[in-house]
Amino acid sequence: MKRDQEIIEATIELIMHKSPDKITMRDIASEAGLSLGLSYKYFKNKAAIFEQILQWAEKEVITSLDPSILSDPKKYIDFIIDSLIINKREWTVIYKISLNPGLITNSFANISKIEKLLETKIGKGKSQALFSTIVGFSVLFLFIPGYSEYFDREQFKNQILKLL
Predict the structure, then answer these.
(1) Do 120 and 64 fall within a single domain?
(2) Residues 128, 148: one domain?
(3) Which H or E run contains 11?
(4) Of 107, 99, 100, nearest to 53 (Cα)?
(5) Which of 29, 93, 115, 134 is most deeply buried (CB count within 10 A of its CB)?
(6) Which helix (H) or strand (E) holds 135?
């Protein structure tokens, strides 16, 4: 594995257990088994590492979204649930970095694109309700221990569809 990839993997591991705003370059270097000076050779600061990680996570998750499903809320909800289950690590990273304002610039750029696509497919009011509900659910699913074990997919989907 290349050194820059080692740094990224070490940072992802730290993000899974610690708030990104509490992570230092020293923490990252230590987790990667590198000296602090060597880690700066690859990334000028932790924001640059977070940018790389967010690009990777968004590529893995968000860009796999087929825009044609946005016109069918049932398919969109299924996509999100499947994606949260399959890509839990990536979603966790996206949320933890994006929910810490000031860590990086444009952290919501791709998420905003999805919200705008939803608006054009099902209307502004419905898209905001759907998007907000899914964001709330995602936070529960990713960060509340045991929540995914008791999750009822059909009940959740039906509750969201009632909002629309």
Answers:
(1) yes
(2) yes
(3) helix 3-17
(4) 107
(5) 93
(6) helix 124-143
Number of folded domains in the chain?
2
For 118, the enclosing helix (H) or strand (E) is: helix 109-122
Burial class of residue 1 (count of CB atoms within 10 Å of its CB; 0-12, 13-18, 19+)? exposed
Q: Token digits for 82?
A: 């499947």
- Torsion angle in degrees (nearest 10) through CA of 80, 83, 87, 88: 40
* pLDDT, tens digit, 9 for 90 and up, residues 146-162: 777 777 878 877 777 77
For 26-61, what is each residue's pLDDT tens digit? 999 999 999 999 999 999 999 999 989 988 887 777
User: How far apart, in whole angstroms, are the C-alpha atoms of residue 119 and residue 101?
Assistant: 25
pTM confidence score: 0.74
Count of all residues that appear for the chain in the document: 164
And the tokens for 58? Answer: 């968004």
Question: Whole-angstrom Cα distance, residue 45 to residue 50?
Answer: 9
CB 31 within 8 A of CB 19: no
Contact 19, 97 (CB under 8 A): no
